[in-house]
Specification:
The complex is a heterodimer.
Chain A: H1 4-46
Chain B: H1 2-25, H2 39-66, H3 69-101, H4 109-130, H5 134-148, H6 151-161, H7 181-224
Helix pairs in contact in B: 1-7, 2-3, 2-5, 2-7, 3-4, 3-5, 3-7, 4-5, 4-6
Classes of the chains: A mainly alpha, B mainly alpha.
Chain lengths: 47, 225
Amino acid sequence: MKNLNSVFAAYMIGWTVFFVYYISIARRTSVLREDIERLKNSLNRGK
Amino acid sequence: MKKSVLSAVVVLLLLGAAAYGSFFIAPTDAKQGLIYRILFLHVPSAWTGLTAFFISFVANLLYVWRRQPRWDWLGVSAAEVGLAFTTVVLITGPIWAHPVWGIWWTWSPRLTSTFVLWLLYVSYLLLRTLIEEPDRRALLSALFGIFAFIDVPLVFGSIRWWRDQHPTPVVMGEPGSGLDPLMYRVLFLSWFAMLGLMTLLLRQRYRLESMRGDIETIQRELEAA
């Protein structure tokens, strides 16, 4: 089982990169959704 | 919503099958032993990253031609997704290289051109943060994206045209190069799963960019009111 740690590390780091990236998209989307709601309300108040 | 959950489940199942195949179905390499199994993450990530950059390239060309915001949104989304996959390539490569070559990194044509590709797309994303006016930002970044894509054929050809420490291509290489048929099947299953993941990420990222477009429109309306 030589190099098992390296294989494990490569897969763990690789999947962590994809997972963190997915979370970052989800967070940015949620922030923008709130911004859109806020801006729509401002627009409706202005009309 | 149901459709997106279903597609996420399908992609997760595909990724699970690919991981199972990588560890338990593909035979162990006679020369490298266990460490070669990084190939089933490293190579499909590289192919998928290049596919995403190609999508970005086509979207950038279409933006320059048609000037429709949706091509700008697709261009930046695909560039960012491609960058995530290339980051995985640049991390997993040295983890494989250290036990096999005895060094983490060497400035060989394949490694250097891949690193330059990563830098070019980081610059592409940085450039977008520096320009506020949407149409100008879209046009300049589309032109830069077209320029950045020039490095992709260099990455592809680097291990075919020049002597390189990087292993020879496993697909479309010289006679005698390649893999065991079972390894090929696992490799292509892994690539298929990665393409599924890319599609999922790209769809989410595109939605985010279209929301940004909506915000810019609302802000313009507010300023005009």
